[in-house]
Amino acid sequence: MPNPYLPSWEYIPDGEPRVFGNRVYVYGSHDEAGSDRFCDFKLKVWSADVNDLANWVCHGDSFHTRVDRDHASNTDWTDRELYAPDVIEKDGKYYLYAYIIGSVGCVAVSDRPEGPFELLSTYQVPDHSDPLLTERIMIDPGVLVDDDGRVYIYCGYLRSYMAELNAANMVEVLPGTFQKDFIPVEEPFSFFEACSPRKVGDTYYLIYSPKQGSRLDYATSKSPTGPFEYGGTIVDNGVDYPGGNNHGSICQINGQWYIFYHRMTNNTVMSRRACVERIEILPDGRIPQVEMTSLGFDRSLSPYRYTPADYACVLKGGCYITERNTLERAIVHIVDESVIGFKYYDFGEDYSSKTMEFTAKIRGCGNKGTMRILLDDAAEGTEIGSCEIGPGDGIAKAVVSCVTGVHSIYFVFDDGYSGYFGEFFEGRPICELEGFVFHK
After folding, report:
1. Is 215 among the domain residues?
2. Rg of the chain over CA atoms, in angstroms?
3. Distance between CA 113 and CA 23 in Å, rounded?
4. What CATH number has the domain bearing residue 423?
5. Which of 31, 75, 98, 280 would bridge 85 by S-S if both were Cys, CB 3.0 to 4.6 A apart?
6. Which range of residues forms the domain containing residue 78?
7. What are 227-274's pLDDT values in tens digits?
């Protein structure tokens, strides 16, 4: 399943992946298309069979802070937005931890990993605790159940915090366990937000977002309470793409490690969609940084199947993905020198053909231009053909060189205006791209 791996209309940022039984579950915030704020007042759960990552099932809403047409509120003291949940299993029960704006937060419980979850309690803080614990700092909680059954919570915004929870009730912060700045704010750590703990072998990983915002970095330790050593960056959603905040974690599925994260749409940092990349954890524990791709869970994409425009992983020159409605998404504001890229396609082996055809579905903007098609690099890649773009809606077609092997694809746009009056057309959109396909 390509990126974004959930249905195109679904906005699940801050994804925490968890494997329970034979299914992988993604717990995240819930954004709205084109919203002017992060998150809304409900949480949703999606899952897939570990042997079929192309087919994700929606289990519906799992928790609410406001009444809607189908659900009552799960909280009677607040109706504010829900942020960045995590879910862990302990003794056959599934516990959901979430941040609620302006609140101490909450813990909810279910007999099933998909929920729905019923409120258990807010966090219980010991008397005479550090004042920070009573000042609603449990932002973006990530929870770890260690091999010995002890439970730890990691959280924070601008500064990192952690504590041990009472494993008997899962809500009480144990006296004397609260730590500040277990991930420093200084370089190279630069902690900002989005704590997510994992244990791999005998190593504890803390995945988080640094001050640079668009990255997911990690730190490691031999103890759940630290000290932690800085590891590096795993993925950066702002490389050649309109970046924003980032939040996610690592997960092993059928022996393959992945990093779950999100990307922005609708020319806003609020409408975020779930993405995933394959990663490798080296024998020494390091995680090399990976690039953003269109692949998702796939090893490669087929150029001979229609590619929706919102699979793009490179957007440069002011263009961006937007949602017209539940069924339609396009790349808009394509202007002179805009670059759109997709990674990676397996063209196969065909040594009998010299050419093939390319077809793109576009929406005209009343202007004209050219879409050049390149392999592997937008600046220095091999140009295999080009399409003329007219002022109206329709199909842009071209005969292009036959391609073999695995390649990324880039579209580079020229506005088609020159001469004395060319400057008057600068910045005017050339077209909107809805999708494309190669065929022979």
Report:
1. yes
2. 23
3. 10
4. 2.60.120.260
5. 98
6. 16-279
7. 999 999 999 999 999 999 999 999 999 999 999 999 998 888 889 999
